[in-house]
Amino acid sequence: MSTFKPRDWGSHAPFIAPGYKSTILRGPTRAPLAIKSGLTEGTGPRFAPASVRKLDFDLTKNGITNGEPLGERIVVHGKVMDTNGRPQPDILVEVWQANAAGRYVHKVDQHDAPLDPNFRGSGRCMTDANGNYVFYTIKPGAYPWGNHFNAWRPNHIHLSLFGPGFATRLVTQMYFPGDPLLELDPIFLGTEDAAARERLIAKFSIEKTEEGFALGYQFDIVLRGRNATPMEN
Asked: What SUPFAM superfamilies does this protein's entry cite (predicted)?
C-alpha cells in the first residue's frame, strides 16, 4: 500500500478567495478534518488503457463532423510525478477547455461567441511507463465570466487526475506563458504563493513543436508535496 505525506496546503489556493466571488458562498468555513489514509486511498481507482479510445488524446480530431476545427493547433506534453519526483505510469489524464473563440460546448455557456461544429473540447490520455503524457488540441480563447467589471479568464486548459489513489486526486488548470490576463485573474491569483503559481504556467517547447502543424507546450504535473501542482480553486 502507498503511504502519503500530509498535503502541503501552502501550495494551493485557499477554499475562500475573496477576489473569486463564488468561493465566498461555496467555500467551507471550518478547517478540513485530517483523515488517516488507508488501503482505499492508496490503491485506487485504477484505469486500464481500454479507458482511452483511439482519438481521445487528439482534440483536433475527436470532434470532427465536417471539417477541421478552427484555431491554433498545439501539442501538450509532460510528465506526471509523485512527491519525490518519481514518474507515475498508467495515470488517466482528462482534459476539457473552451474552443478558439472562448466558448465551451455546454448548455450553460451562453457567451456570445461561435461554437465550432468540429471541436467538442474534451479528451483524455494515459501516462506511459515513464509517466509521460501527450495530447493535441486547439489553443483555447479567453472569455468573459462576470466575476467583476470587465472580467476575462486567461487562456487555460482544465486537467483532472487521480494519480495512484484518491489521496493524490488533482483538478487543476494549465495556463500559457506571456498571457496579460494572468495578473488580472482572481482564480490564478488565488494561488497565493508566487512559486506555486508559476507551476500552473506551461513552458513553450520548440523541441516538441511539430513543423508546419502544431506549437509545443510542456506542462509537468506533481501530485502532492512541496512542489505539487496547485489545485483548481
From this structure: Aromatic compound dioxygenase
